[in-house]
Amino acid sequence: MKHVKQLLSALLLLLSLSLAFVACKKDPVDPDPQPAVTAITSIDPATAPVGSTIAITGTNFSTDPASNTITIGGVTATVVSASPTKLVVVVPAGAANGPVSVTANGQTAQSAGTFTVALPGLKPTKEVRGTTFANLTWKKDTIYVLRGQVYIPADYKLTIEPGTIIKGTGPEMDPNGTNYPGALIVERRAQLIAIGTPTQPIVFTSSKAAGQRSYGDWGGVVLIGKAPVNQSRTAAYPNGVRGTVEAYGEPLDNSGTMQYVRIEYAGATQPTTPASRLGGLTLIGVGTNTVIDHVQVSYSGSDAFAWFGGTARLKNVFSYRAFDDDWSADWGYVGNVQFGVSLRDVSVGDPSGSNGFEVDNYQSAETSDVTAVTAINGYTQTAPTFANFSSFAYSTAPTTGLYNAGIYLRRNTAVSIYNSLVYGFPVGVYLEGAAVGPQANFTSGTLDLKGIVVANALTPVVGAGSNTPEQATTYFTGAGRSNQIIATSDVATLLLNPGNLTLSSPAFVPQTGSPLLTGAVTGGKLANSFFTSVTYRGAFGTDNWVSGWTNVNPQATDYDR
Question: Source organism's superkingdom (predicted)?
C-alpha cells in the first residue's frame, strides 16, 4: 500500500508539472513588430538652386547612401550622406518644381509639399512652424517662411541678422489645419533680437509675390512680457495668442531689441472670432528694458501698433496706410513713446471708424477683478505718454466715411499726448466719457493734452457721454495748454512739406519757417529721461528719420533675391 501511495504522489506531481507547462504554452506571445515605414517629414530648405544641398528628414531611410533613391521633380538626385532619419542630397540639373520622392528599404514615400528649384540669384527658403525649444539665429542669406503661429518659448532667444527677410503665410497654410495665419510670437521670458541697420533693415512681409500682396496677408509680430496689465489673471491673451495674462508685476522686463524693422501686410483675421486680428506689431505686457525704435508697419489689415498693458518705450515709429487704428493702447499701458508719424489712404479704412490714436481702458463690465489687479499688477488705468506725433489722413479736405478721429480717448483712459499734429480727420480730438472717464481725468490732470495742433478737421473737438462738447472744447483750448485749431482754409500757414500727403513718395520735414518748428511744451511728464528735449511740434524737426530704411512701395519690391 505504501508503494501505491508513493506511485500516486509521483503521478500527481507529474500531472501538475504537465499542467504548468501547458499553462505556460498558453500564455499570449508578443505580436510581430510592425515593419518600419518610410516617410518624409520635412525638406530644408524648400527652395534651393541646382547644385546646392538640401536635407530630407523622415523615417526608415537606409544608412547606405547608394541604397536610397531620391527624385526631385522626377529627376534623380545624388545622395551626399545618409542616416535612418536624414538624407542630404544635391539638387540635380534639370530638376523641376514638384514633390520629392524617396525609395528606401523596399518602400517609396513622397513629400506632402512641393520643392521649388530657385532661379539663379534667388535665396533659399526655410519653413518655420510651431514651437522650437532652442536658441535660433536667422541669417540674411535665407528667407524664412512662417506657417501658422510660430512661438519662441520662455528662456529661448531668436536672433535675426540685419537684412533678413521673413515672410508670413495666410491661414490656408497653417500646418495644423486650424486656420491661423503665419505669425511670430515671442512669449514671456523669451527674447527677440532683431537689430537691422539703416541700409539693411529686417523685413517681415507677405509670402505672396510682388504685385499680389494685400492687407492682412499674414498675422504679425507679437512680443509678450511680464510687465503689468490691468486684466484678470485668467483673461486670455488677445486675438488668438495662446495663454492667459496670469499675474506679473515686472515693469523692467526685457523682451529683446527691435531696431530698423519693417512689418508689411500683417493683420490677417484669426479663427477665434471674425473681428479678431493681430496688429502689425502687438506688445502685451512688454517692459521698459525692451528696446524698440525705427519700426515701420505698412498695410496692416488691423491696427498698426497695438499696446496691451505693459511699460514699453518706443521711438521713431511709422504707420503707413493702415486699415484700422495707427496707435492703439489698452489694458493699462503706461509706457512712453516719442516720434511717430502716420500717413493714411482715405479710400481704405475700417467701417467701424479708423483713428490715429485710439486709447482705451477697462470698461465698466470688465472691472469686477479691479481689486485683484490692483493688488497683483500695480496698475489699473491706461496712462501712457506720447510725444511728437504727426497723424495725417491723406486728403486736402477733411476725411469722412471710414474715419473717425485723429485722437479718440475713452473708457477712463488717462493718456498724455504732447507736441503733436493731427491733420485731415473728421474729428480732431474725441473725448468720450462714462461714469468715470476722460472728463474726470482731465479735471484731475491725469489726462493731459498739450502742445497739440488740430488742422483741417470738420469738427476739431467732440465731447460724448458724460463729456459735453462745451466741456471738451473748454478743456482742449484752455489757457496754458498751448493747443491750436487750424481751419481748413488756413492749413497753408503751417508750411508743411509739399510732398507731405503724397502716398507714393511722402516727405514729412516741414518747410523752413513753419510754426511747427517752435512752440513745444516742456516739463512735467516730458522731464522723464526717456524723452528727447525738442523745440518742435509733430514728428519732425529738420532730421528726416524715416529716410533710407523705410519703404512706401513694398508691393513692387522683390524680396526673393
Answer: Bacteria
One-letter amino acid at 67 equals S
DSSP 244: B
Domains and CATH numbers, the chain: 39-118 (2.60.40.10), 122-276 (no CATH), 345-364+378-548 (no CATH)
Give the three-class secondary structure for 525.
helix
Q: What is the 3-state secondary structure (H, E, C) of 4-58?
A: HHHHHHHHHHHHHHHHHHHHHHHCCCCCCCCCCCCEEEEEECCEECCCCEEEEEE
For residue 540, give the nearest of 526, 520, 560 by alpha carbon: 520
Q: 338 CB contacts (<8 Å, ≥6 apart)? A: 314, 315, 386, 387, 388, 530, 531, 532
Whole-angstrom Cα distance, residue 25 to residue 6? Answer: 29
- Would you call 312 helix, strand, or coil by DSSP? coil
- The DSSP secondary structure of 69-115, one letter per residue, reads EEEETTEEEEEEEEETTEEEEEPPTT--SB-EEEEETTEEEE-SS-B
Q: What is the pLDDT of residues 360-386, one digit of tens each?
A: 886 443 444 444 444 344 456 899 999
How confident is the model over 171-230, as pLDDT tens digits? 999 999 999 999 999 999 999 999 999 999 999 999 998 999 999 999 999 999 999 998
**Residue pointed to by grid coordinates 498695410:** 299
